[in-house]
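Cross-posting from the modeling subforum.

Setting up a comparison between two proteins and wanted a second pair of eyes on the formatting. Protein 1 (sequence, then structure tokens):
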Amino acid sequence: MKLKPTLWIAALLLAGTGPALADGDAAHGKIVFGRCAVCHSLDAGKNLVGPSLKGVAGRKSGTVAGYQYSKGMAAAGLTWDDATLDKFLAAPSATVPGTKMLVGLPNPADRADVIAYLKSVN
């Protein structure tokens, strides 16, 4: 059976994103998170340029007390699960127009690892 080109591309994209989320390496994610730590703390209540990421897994977007969110993030209504975190970390501005976060993680394995790390310190 031959797949149409658009279906073939979609199948490749989906095949490349599913398992990585489940198989993230938290130890490597801690190293990659070093890039994120410039703007984000893992201490509850300690907001920096970005909000604290303590407890981010499962949290609603735009809800960290004491952090001044962009209008886009305040209105986004997202829940930070694996898929949403992956999508946002890949392309923050495309996922939440108007977000203050401009730096993404283009590497799917790095994203999976950071998500695993964030969940491990949740």
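Protein 2 (same layout):
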Amino acid sequence: MKKKAKPAPKKKTAASNNDKALREHLVYLLKGGGAHVHFMDAVEGFPEAKRGAFVAGLPHTGWQLLEHARIAQWDILEFSRNPKHVSPGFPEGYWPKTPGPPGEAAWEKSVEAFQRDLQEMINLVKDPKTDLYAKIPPGDGQTILREALLVADHNAYHLGQLVDLRRALGAWPQQ
């Protein structure tokens, strides 16, 4: 009886190395790497009494920025993985109705949902079965790559606003 030959180990190609590197870079960016603020650095320790406070010259409260970032990230994630997803109306569906959280637990619930959805987007990007370049149905040309970059960009913008707001409120730990 002949022995079966073992299959040759698969060679890593430049394309597979590039794909792995791209996914790693996207995850780094989504997590707030480099020049971007990390999500928890922006929200942790935000004084409860100041979460609904406006500051002269700044258009939003901490609650509005947190909820807007959460809603937009959730919408982008669902669009990326669910072809039947229906986005909220724009712009009213992307902003909370009140300047402050409606209850004590709302802030923490929003923080947890943001973190969960961010991790889901990271998981989607990390999954080698996810084609980062395939067009997302029923979109008009969007790809997972584009949506991951959009999440990172949108989060960076609004988390930067949150840091500015905290500084203006005297609530930034590094002051």
